[in-house]
Amino acid sequence: MRKVRTWILLIVAAIAPLGSVGCVPMSMGIATPLPMQPWVTERMEEKYCYKNDKRTPIMPPIREGFPAPLCEDPPDDAMILRAMPHIPRGVPYFYEEHRDELDIRKELMVDRIDPPRFFPLVGPAQLHHCHWRCTIYFKETVESGYPFPFRCQAPRTEVIYIDKDHLHLAGGCTPEAQQSITNDVTGY
User: Fold this and answer.
1) Are residues 162 and 83 in contact, defined by beta-carbon separation less than 8 angstroms?
2) Domain ranges, residue 115
3) Distant-in-sequence contacts of 183-186, Cβ < 8 A, 24+ apart
4) Could you tell me if 99 and 140 are in contact, meaning their C-beta atoms sit under 8 angstroms apart?
5) Quick check: is 117 in a domain?
6) Residue 159: inside a domain
7) Which of 86, 104, 111, 130 is the most exposed place for a label (fewest CB within 10 A)?
8) pLDDT < 70 regions, the chain
9) Are 72 and 108 in contact (CB under 8 A)?
10) What are the two backbone dihedrals, phi and then psi, of residue 118, each rounded to the nearest 5 degrees?
11) Distance (Å, rounded) from C-alpha 89 to C-alpha 45?
12) How much is the pLDDT for 181?
């Protein structure tokens, strides 16, 4: 019995170091690096870095006796490019797609202010509609290097509609109430 126990102990002592080297899955335990696709970080950036693209800002009240505010700030080019459909994932040298020579044109479609109404978590406010039509002209390039090299370029047009709606608080009818709301919102 003693001989069998000695042999088993020697075999385990010889095999144990072999299990801790080489390509053994989860050999580092919880610190084992996992392979990650390159598009995962891009999707995480879209989700966490550009949160304000889909949020509605709350502006101070519209003052009586002054002209109504206008939609003067068009969407920036980065916001428009983020709203475009993604380029399909390619395989390097087999299929790759690019967009070159971008030309973006922005056109205001709707500039309208609704009458005051109650919005949950905001209170009485007026919705200011600012709708933009953005036309993107670009050259789409599809290329491959294997099994036979080719390159195809074609002009393309993409139309993106972006809503930059925002709320204007609707204060009381008195100028003092509107001034207090403006002080609360802007800090002036």
Assistant:
1) yes
2) 97-188
3) 185/58, 185/59, 185/60, 186/60
4) yes
5) yes
6) yes
7) 86
8) 18-29, 172-175, 177-179, 181-182, 185, 187-188
9) no
10) -90, 130
11) 17
12) 65
* Residue 15 falls inside a structural domain: no
| Cα three-residue angle 12-14-19, rounded to 5 degrees | 80
For strands 150-163 and 166-169, give the pairing: unpaired
Closest to 59 in 3D by CA, of 182, 142, 168: 168
Tell me how many domains the chain contains.
1
Of 143, 137, 163, which is closest to residue 55 (Cα–Cα)?
163
Contact, 154 vs 43, CB < 8 A? no
Decide: 186 and 60 in contact? Cβ < 8 Å: yes
Summarize pLDDT for 10-36 with one digit per residue, the tens.
888 777 776 666 666 666 667 777 777
Please report whether residue 40 resides in a domain: no
Joined together, the tokens standing for residue 51 give 């949160």
pLDDT digits (tens, 9 = 90+) for 179-188: 676 677 676 6
